[in-house]
Amino acid sequence: MFQDQFVQSISYRHKKIEENGSKVVYNVWREDYERSVRTVTFDSSNITAKCSYQLFEFAGYLCRHVLKIFLVEDVRKLPTHYIIKRWTRDAKLGSIIDAHGEEMQADCHETVTITYSKLCQEAINIATKGSTSKEMYLVTIQILQNARKEVEAAYKQMSIGSNKDSV
């Protein structure tokens, strides 16, 4: 669900239509489908966004339109007020209450979706810089291929280690 929205957000276009202090209003649409334009209002003072699609209000997770604007505004960490407990791995565990009686969001166990989103954001930033020239492309593709090999080796090593533990 969230992951699908995030992946779709990458192919969406945006246009800033209004700016007033910390609030910026954007139109967001799918590149090949300009008839369906959504309006997103982003407030940088508290890192909030409201979308005319209202997926967060109805389903409890952010839509591709808001996620697109978070990418544009370089919001690298999903604000905790958008992480609803029912979507976390710890949903069945009891609440953690702070000294003021407020429920706290545990941030020591990031969900797979959040780590995936961070990796995608980093990859997008690398691809953006790496595509600026032929020379940058050649350097970037070599580094990415080496990184992939290192990740595959680490993954294989972890798999071997977990098999030893299970014997």
TrEMBL record:
One of its GO terms (cellular component) is nucleus. It is found in: Nucleus. GO terms for biological process: regulation of DNA-templated transcription. Keywords: Metal-binding, Nucleus, Zinc, Zinc-finger. The keyword Zinc applies. It comes from the Eukaryota. One of its GO terms (molecular function) is zinc ion binding. Belongs to the FHY3/FAR1 family. Putative transcription activator involved in regulating light control of development. This is Protein FAR1-RELATED SEQUENCE. The lineage of its organism: Eukaryota, Viridiplantae, Streptophyta, Embryophyta, Tracheophyta.
